[in-house]
Design brief:
2 domains, 11 helices, alpha/beta, disordered C terminus, 6-stranded mixed beta sheet, Rossmann fold
């Protein structure tokens, strides 16, 4: 019997070398595809026992071409790139990466919210064009008088609530599924969250129920001159409705780190609207997170192979499989 095989699909800007070293030291044959292309993945992983996934879409058709795969480990907290219902039906493990960039994403969201509140992009533009403080078209706002609203109360939102509480006058949130609720954060229904928030920050996964959730009717219920921050998933926001809300003044600004199509096309209006503060899906990036994003999925695979269970599962087979596990 040969070595167990672990295949890394796409790593984008990350260096897969540390993951390859960990897997090799643990007795795996490690392969790097370096692509989201299903044909390339199927060719490299036809005999794979485990798959480490970046953004590549792993669906039923691709799983059919990888009959030995029993473990799927994502390089992110999100796992919407994997058809988890199909994985569960097939009795596969799915593990995610919940902690690697929690602090980084929360701090990024806070930085975006404060940059919008203090109108830093406008201040930069005023000075570069030869103006001064008297040339502000709209004055910055005082954060201590504003309400920060969080849609979702997962790890990132809880971290953001903790670090933002001393800055903003009030922090409120809506999440009907959250059991762990931090002190000092008001728990409100969705309508109240939308109506009361001066800054609405999104912290929910992409699901059939949430895709396009931030649409025209919801944006119309927000306070005039409010702000939107999205470091979660690009398809939560209807881009046409967002642009209309910015043009009408319903939203004074928005900050996006994620987009419906990544990267957005050169002529995408989202790239050019003057009231948008943009970052290139980089909220998760730091020197520390770059290491964790490749090493922790490898540790999930190694733990699954050696103990029968990954460290951070999100899909657990009804009956844990033992095919191919070490004796």
């Amino acid at each position: 019997m040969g070595l167990p095989v672990a295949v890394i699909t796409d790593t984008e800007e990350l260096d897969p070398g540390p993951a390859v070293r960990l897997l090799t030291e643990a007795g795996f044959e490690a392969r790097v595809v370096g692509s989201r292309d299903p044909e390339a993945i199927a060719a490299a992983a036809h005999d794979a026992d485990a798959l480490i996934v970046g953004y590549a879409r792993i669906d039923a058709a691709l799983l059919d071409r990888m009959p030995r795969v029993r473990m799927l480990a994502t390089m992110s907290a999100g796992h919407d790139m994997i058809d988890t219902a199909e994985a569960r039906r097939r009795g596969l493990w799915v593990a995610n990466l919940p902690h690697a960039a929690t602090e980084d994403v929360a701090v990024h969201a806070l930085a975006q919210a404060l940059a919008l509140t203090r109108r830093l992009p406008q201040a930069d533009a005023v000075l570069r064009s030869g103006g001064w403080s008297t040339d502000f078209a709209e004055l910055p706002r005082r954060a201590g008088e504003l309400t920060l609203g969080l849609l979702g109360m997962g790890r990132i939102a809880r971290t953001l609530a903790r670090i933002a509480a001393p800055v903003f006058g009030r922090v409120v949130a809506h999440d009907p599924h959250a059991a762990d609720w931090p002190d000092g954060v008001g728990r409100v229904d969705l309508d109240t969250l939308v109506a009361d928030s001066d800054i609405l920050s999104l912290h929910i996964p992409s699901t059939p129920a949430t895709r396009g959730m931030i649409d025209g009717p919801l944006l119309d219920r927000m306070r005039p001159g409010s702000l939107l921050v999205n470091v979660s998933r690009g398809d939560l926001v209807d881009p046409g409705a967002l642009l209309a809300a910015l043009d009408s003044g319903r939203l004074a600004g928005a900050a996006l780190d994620v987009f419906p199509v990544e990267p957005p096309a050169a002529d995408d209006p989202l790239r050019h609207h003057p009231r948008l503060l943009l970052s290139p899906h980089s909220a998760f990036l730091s020197d520390a997170s770059q290491r964790a994003y490749v090493t922790e999925p490898a540790r999930n695979v190694i733990a699954w192979w050696t103990t029968g269970s990954p460290l951070t599962p999100v899909v657990t087979p009804a009956a844990a499989r033992t095919e191919g596990a070490p004796a």
